[in-house]
């Protein structure tokens, strides 16, 4: 894929839509393009997070390790991003990401990420929107699980 094709791909991602062309070229040039075969782990829950990823092509599962085993909590697709929480909060990875198909990503380092968000406040807003959306979805899932558990306990 050419640099211009990568720039156009980045422009399709909501958090990069308002970033000027020259900065997108810099991002495409300075980020690392990585390919993971189906079944390979991109990052694992608990490990240090030094970068975020943008999915260029393919799909991945978001897996959380629980006491009774791993649980797939979401799927990621083209134009999704992940890993931003670990670098924003300076905490270990909150989930494992596993490629379910061949997965092509752009790896954006912590330093580059911070440079971008300081230069483009709109990008920060888009990241906050995505994090808020994920929190809302998680809250709804937890409420549904609580309702299901209450129904099961009421049936006993």
How would you describe this protein?
With 156 residues, the chain is an alpha+beta fold. The chain has one domain: Jelly Rolls, CATH 2.60.120. 45% of the residues lie in helices and 28% in strands. It has five helices and eight strands. The chain has helices at residues 3-11, 21-30, 84-89, 110-119, 121-155; strands at 32-36, 41-43, 51-57, 60-66, 69-76, 81-82, 96-99, 103-109. The strands form two sheets. The chain has a four-stranded antiparallel beta sheet. The protein has a four-stranded antiparallel beta sheet with strand order 2-7-4-5, with no helix packed on it. A hairpin with a 2-residue loop joins strand 4 and strand 5 (69-76). Helix 1 packs across helix 2 (21-30) and helix 4 crosses helix 5 (121-155). It is globular, with a radius of gyration of 17 Å. The mean pLDDT is 87.
The domain tally reads: 1
Shape: globular
Looking at CATH, which topology would you report?
Jelly Rolls
Relative strand content: 25-35%
CATH class: Mainly Beta
Which class do the helix and strand fractions yield?
alpha+beta
- Quaternary state of the chains: single chain
The CATH architecture assignment turns out to be: Sandwich
Mean pLDDT: 87
- Biggest sheet: strand arrangement: 1-8-3-6
Low-pLDDT segments: none
For the CA atoms, what is the radius of gyration? Answer: 17 Å
Q: What is the string of helix and strand elements? A: HHEEEEEEHEEHH
Termini separation: 58 Å
Share of residues in helices:
40-55%
CATH superfamily: Jelly Rolls
Count up the helices: 5
Main beta sheet:
4 strands, antiparallel
- In total, the number of strands is 8
